[in-house]
Each structure stands twice: as structure tokens, then as C-alpha cells.
Amino acid sequence: MSTIAVIGTGYVGLVTGAWFAELGNYVTCVDILEEKVNQLRAGEMPFFEPGLAEMVARSAEAGRLRFTTSYTEAVPDADFVFITVDTPPAMNGKADMSRVESASRSVAQHLVGHTVIINKSTMPMGSGDFVAHTLKASAPKGVTYAVVSNPEFLREGAAVRDVMEPDRVVLGGTDAHAINAVAGLYAAMDVPIVRTDLQTAELIKYASNAMLATRVSFINEIAAICDVFGADVRVVAEGMGYDPRIGPLFLEAGIGFGGSCFPKDVKALAHMAKENNLHPQLLNSVLEINQSQRYRFVAKVEKYVGDLRGKRIAVWGLAFKQDTDDMREAPSIEIIEAMMTRGAQVRAYDPEASDTAKRAIRDLVTVSDPYEAVQGADALLLLTPWNEFKQADMARVVEYMHTPILLDGRNLYDRKQMQGLGFTYCGVGR
Ligand code: UGA
Fold first, then answer.
1. pTM for this structure?
2. Does 320 sit in the ligand 1 pocket, CB within 6 Å?
3. 154, 167, 217, 222, best to mutate for ligand 1 pocket (most atoms within 8 Å of CB)
């Protein structure tokens, strides 16, 4: 079993640390935020992620998972140090590497003997070398280290399952010995391992997210065409998905992708291409379609409800996707702000994201019951496809609403069934 330090307790760091501890390793997670560390020590999770609190508790109780603000407690004894701090987008779309830089510097100052440093954060091509240079500048004389890129592919809301059953492990670097050592950490799992150089590993991560985002924008463009011709995008996607060259996943039309990954990574990849005199036409279009998808939805609300001044708009779902309380780049933000600017009164409900949403949307009114949100409403906007909404008593919703108009931004409901209940129904591309 190995001793591991994980720097940064965001999604990637916390889930990775908890999983390696569950596999029997000794893991110390470092975060510079004292409050967050205290919270984690008390067993409280800094964000909502199904199954994570239980996984953390199991290893913490077994004494294999600790949290600290001190690099001294984590790095000197570690065989492996995972860097999992975030790389948020700067104004021009470029990934901001300042946290990676300061984490690398702090790691370097605490190295003892030989250590393998693993980049798990999504980092632009060339970052492996950047981390190696930062380490070189700050590491004490006599220590040795190798840098390996090991991008993470987990999804929020399904992170625990994804970390336990990854589709692949990607390892990039120049030191075959270090790559084999990191591969050893995954030995208990039956998973294909792609071994390559640093830049290729880094690009695999960006290209994967860009491909998935492209599929979402593609199907959203097809949905707009469906709207014009009266076709049903869900059936189009189903019919396409049986072709093994296409496959059925990530072809759900809706109000566009959000979250901390797709928008940031597609922008960063486009920026890297542009900086090197390429014209990333496809990536730019993916972002443009994603943006217009939100406005198209707002236009639909106006078409069905008319002048929004003084109208009561109920919103079900705020988070950028189901099973998370994450509001980063959530399409709900722009849609709700557009409702408010046009004079509507919005009342929103989300099973988990009310608090984070209030920080993201100024003056947002949230309620703690989905049926309270629809009382007297002129329209209901479904923005996140939580299971709770799928199972809701929609007959009751019709009764409570002033005008039963349902704008289904995620194609969650069956049109005929909703019309049968008395709704005026509008989906995306149906
Ligand atoms: C995404 C990738 O799926 C992960 O593999 C990757 O590790 C992660 O980014 C990351 O880079 O950290 P995540 O952002 O958690 O994961 O969520 P997804 O499930 O991929 O959904 C992203 C967005 O696309 C959501 O807003 C979702 O509602 C939307 N989406 C997804 C659609 O609109 N239609 C679809 O068919 C699928």
C-alpha cells in the first residue's frame, strides 16, 4: 500500500483521495482553506455528491484518510502527490494556472527523497513541463521526482461510481518507471490503461470533453431544426443511437450544457488553438450553439406566456444537472435573469441547489416545496431533470397553476400525457 498526498479538496481531489483510501492506501488531503478542512474532519461534505460522505467516512474511521492545511503533514512521507486544484477560466478563456503554480511550489518545498507528482487537474498542453519547471525552481537539493499526467474523467452527480469503475486510465510522461508506479495504484481495477507522453495525455482530456460538448450542441442544433419541421428530436436521437458508430449517449437536447468543465474546457481548447494561429471553427460553433440554446428557450417562454411583466414564473431545477448542487455555468442563471429583467416574478425550487443558486442569482426567491413554487403560476419552467420532477404529481400541478403552461427544457415529460392532464406543453425539438 502507498502513502498518497492529494492537494486540493474539490470534486476531483476529494473523490480521488477517498477512493485511493478505500483501496487501502494512506491518504492525506491538503487544502489551504482551514474552514473546509475542519468541515471535512467533522464528516461534512463541502458539496452535494451522492455516496461521497459515506465513502469518506469509511476510510476516515479506518484511519486511512486525513485532512489538513499543512503540506508538512502530507508531502514529505508521500510516495505519490496528486495535484487536483482547479484551473478556472480567465477572461479570454485561457486556463488560469496560478493555483497549480502555487500548489506545485508548496509541494516542491516539502519534498523528501523520491516522489511521483501526478497532475490530475485539467491542465493545458505543456502544463506537465510547467509543473516540472516550478518544482525544479523550488525543490530542495538532493530530492528526486517525476511528473505524470493522469487526467480525471468523473462526472459530478455520478462521481463515486465513475471513480470506482473508470472507462480508462490515461497516464502521460517521460519516466516509464513513474508511469508504471502510478499504473500500480490502479492495479486492483480492471481498466484499460493508455500510456503516452505528457502533451497527448493532457489533450485526451480536453478532446474528450470537447467531443461530448460537441454532441450536445449537435443535438441541440438538430432540435432547432426539429422545431421548424415538427419532428421529434428524442426519436431522431434514438434512431441515430442504434448505429454503433454514433451510439445513444450525450444526445439529449435541452437548454445547453453547463457546469465547471465543458464550458471551461472547450473555451480553453479553442483559446490554445487560436493562440497557435489555428481557427477552431467547430469549437467556436459548439460554444455559440450552447449560448443560443438558452436564448431560444427564453424566446419560447415569451411565445407561450406573452408579455412577462408581472407574470408568475415557477422554476423546477436550478443546478446545471441533476444530482448535484453545483451552479457553475448553469443555464438556469441566464434563463432566470432573463425572466426577471422582463419583469416576471420567479419562484424556484431545486432539491439541493437553492443555497448555491441564491449566491449565483441576485434576488432569487426559492421555496422548499415544488408544489409551493407552482401555486398561481402562469408557467412552469423545467430546467434540471431531477428524478423528483419526473415522479411529481403533475395533475396536482395543473390544479395549482393559474395557467398550466409547461416549458420542458429537458424533455423530461411525455407530451401526450401532459396534454391529457390539461397542460399546454412545449419541449425542446419536439
Ligand atoms: C463532464 C464529463 O462528462 C466528465 O467525463 C468529465 O470528467 C467532467 O466533465 C470534468 O471535466 O471534470 P460533468 O460536467 O460533471 O462531467 O457533467 P456531464 O454529465 O458531462 O454534463 C455536462 C452538461 O451537459 C450538463 O449541463 C448536462 O445537463 C448537459 N448534457 C449532457 C446535455 O445537455 N445533454 C446530454 O445528452 C448530456
1. 0.95
2. yes
3. 154
